[in-house]
Amino acid sequence: MAVTVLVPTALQKFTNNQAVLECSGTNIAELFDSLEQVCPGIKSRLCNAEGQPNRFLNLYVNSEDIRFLGGTATPLKDGDEVSIVPAIAGG
């Protein structure tokens, strides 16, 4: 099963400067593990020790925020697109 992952510029140093990756996983948690196998060191930038997404990152599956779907248990299927979007704050 192939899932397309869109990687923001800030994390591309872990992906050999690739903005788009093809990985696998039946849910977001498994996708994190798959990304770590392909790009060592990236998982610690994506999630905390409990496996939950870091609070300064937003993750979307096919443009839907995983916080409203199922968090890291959000199911993935072949052809899905996962976007990793850094949170932006300002004042």
TrEMBL record:
Q: Which PANTHER family match?
A: SULFUR CARRIER PROTEIN CYSO (PTHR38031:SF1), SULFUR CARRIER PROTEIN SLR0821-RELATED (PTHR38031)
- Which organism encodes this protein? Sphaerospermopsis reniformis
The protein in question is named Thiamine S protein
Q: List the signal peptide residues.
A: none
SUPFAM superfamilies given in the database record? MoaD/ThiS (SSF54285)
